[in-house]
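Page 42, continued from yesterday. The earlier attempt failed because a stray header line got pasted into the input along with the sequence. Redoing it now with the clean sequence only.
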Amino acid sequence: MHAKETLFADLMQGRAQQFQVPLYQRTYSWTEKHLKQLWSDILEQAGLLESSDEKESTHFLGSVVLAPSPQNDATFPRWLVVDGQQRLTTLSLALAAIRDHVAGTAPVEAQRIDEQYLINKWNSGNDHLRLLPTQADRTQFAAHIRGPLTDQGTESGVATAYAFFRRKLVEADDPAAPQDVFRIEQAITSRLALVAVTAERGDNVHRIFESLNNTGLKLSQADLLRNYLFMKLRARGEHIYETYWLPLQKSLSNDELEQLMWLQLVLDGDDRVRRQDLYAAQQRRFENRKAGDAEIEAYIKELHRRSAHFRRLLHPEQEPEPAVREALRRLDAWQAAVTYPALMLLFDRRERGELNSVDTARALAYIESFLVRRMICRVPTNNLNRIFQAMPGQLPLDVPVVEGLHRLLSSENRFWPDDGELRQKIRTAPFYQYGRWQQRKQVLQRLEESYGHPEPVDFATAQLTIEHVMPQSPGDDWLRTLSEEAEEDETGEELHARFRHTLGNLTLTAVNAELSNHPFERKQDLLRGSHLEMNRRIAATERWGVREILARADELADRAIALWPAPLRGVGRAERNRDWQLAHQVLAALPRGTWTSYGDLAAFLGSGAQAVGNHLANTPGVVNAYRVLTSEGKVSDGFRWATPQQPGSDDVRARLTADGVRFTATGAADPAQRLTADDLASLLAGTDDERANGEDTAQQGTAGTPDEETRAQRFFRQLAADDSPETVEGVRALCAHWESLGGWIGHGAGHVTTSAYLMLGEAGGPGRGIWPMTLYPGAGRGGTAEVVFQYMSVRAPFTDRSLRVELLTRLNALKGVEIPEGKLELRPNLRLSLLVKPGNRELLAETLTWFKDRWEGRSPS
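This time it went through. Structure tokens are written below.
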């Protein structure tokens, strides 16, 4: 048996050969969680290729255990992949995605990638593939390697991984993340290290496999580094431990201590180290310097000193200076841990006397403005880590600290939006669909505070939520008002989609339930009595339509420009390209079996449908551009393929059919498969525990005081106001059945409409358990059950897509339910009134029982 470190390129290149996954191996099973971690590693290594002093650095990916195949012969070596098939399959799919990504613009490079890593050019049949998966995966894998695909067929883990990389390659074209596709290829093939263990005939490869995968409870990076430090200390270990380490360990949790250790590495100049590589990086520094007791003691003392700064970031109330304390409080509320390297740097400089507290507060204001303006202008956050980690090493030395920070954040590749861009996005961008709900609420809170009301609201105790003045689901009165303002080529419904989520239409209130979807005249009466100045100003308006929304947007823009300082003049912007990059990202993320319209995409972007159509018609290489149709589900008369290699427009329907889009008898795409602007926003929103409305937090236990309405009571009151008694009784029976299974009902804190979560697992919120659906009263439209496939996808055992497909199949067995498979990545709704149909209540109860049984049978991991 031989073991050696190698690279993917060295393993796969060379003469014709094949790596065979034995039939007894499990099928390809990497989930999005694994893919995201690998992609992060790839981008990091691609970024290191830019640095001249990091050319020899690699990232260890894991091991590959190989044994001679019984089919091996001298002219065509074949190897069994005893361990490592997931890694080899994933890397092969990533390279196939790169090949297809560049095929239209660099066909020679695409052919090179194919022949170097994916195929045996002169072999046929199964021997054509360099990697031959198990039989269950073979057809899908071969289809992607032989590509390009014309019919994706049934979804699988292989197809999901390939689609993931196609989507991420589109994102990597973002000018804010300059890794180009061929650096990504080089990172995959030449920067991800593998240990190849090659067995001889007769070796017990299964014992090797068992040994490699037999791991116990892993120590944290902080545990490893602490053990290393005190193992190295000889004479003064006990004194250093008592004096510095023990107080440090008592004042911070293990996770916080690990974060501080990582920050110290970053502040000391290692701005590319990842937190999970902290131990190896710090150990390497000590070994290279041949560090003795004095150097290790100095390191621990410095860690102890900086812990005082770090605790102020975690607990802003410990900061003695009021202006600095308030700025830290706002950053903490923003959840801006990404800025910690910059904040620690400022506290270091303040302790040295290089800036006072006034300067520190001004520097913090620049950082806050950088975050807030980017969020309002929908600048992707994927490069914020890189920006703030690099700051300690990039801060100019020839100017005072605050001016240097301002200059650095204003530089061309930082994308700090200026006043003009901020004003334009406040007018047109769907503010409610971007950022975290706490961030959106904080922006509105700061704008309210800017009015300087003599009796300001105590935001710490006031239970305020975000209210749409023009409601999300408008009645006929609202639509008539909008229709009066619509141009000839736009309807009232399309105007509503464009402006409902913009900042000019949003406010804060504690009476959302009373405001609900009422006509504006009713809302005026309630807003007049508000303690918030912004609400009183809305109430003083005679009507509420697009003109009023834009006028208020301009007023809020003036206040935002005064609140959040602008970048320095003279820096470049990429506003237009960045906006279209967002369109490219969401189109690349369209699930199989879905389509969207020009109007939906325009509303998501804060643009116009005509501009979207022009861009797609004139921009080559936009993934899934042909899946943007008219609002009626037809191919636009002006549609044309952007590159001559594509088939004619007559073939669009064939392509859509191959992608799983169904067509009605009239030749229109199935409206059930259409993704709205809200659906598009959900595609890029991730799978964290934020609700669709961003303001619900499920809590177990809903009892109130004798005079107080509980959350459960509020839920059923709102449900009864809009649904039939039979529907309400069906929902009560459903909740009772869920509780009989051992589940519990968590009710949201929302006041516009509350909600009911069917929860399993530990109490204390959805993030600590799992829930198959959320029930909402209808607020004038009829109650709905939201099936949370998007959240299930990151919770065992429903990370297994086949289980989510089975849940979808069971739900579609209900009369009146037909959820398309393309909605399997989203949160589709079904009407609660369907519970009244014969047999539906029993079928749904059986489905919930099945869900609970699957969850209880999950792996302990």
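Notes: The mean pLDDT is 85.
Reminder to self: strip header lines before submitting.
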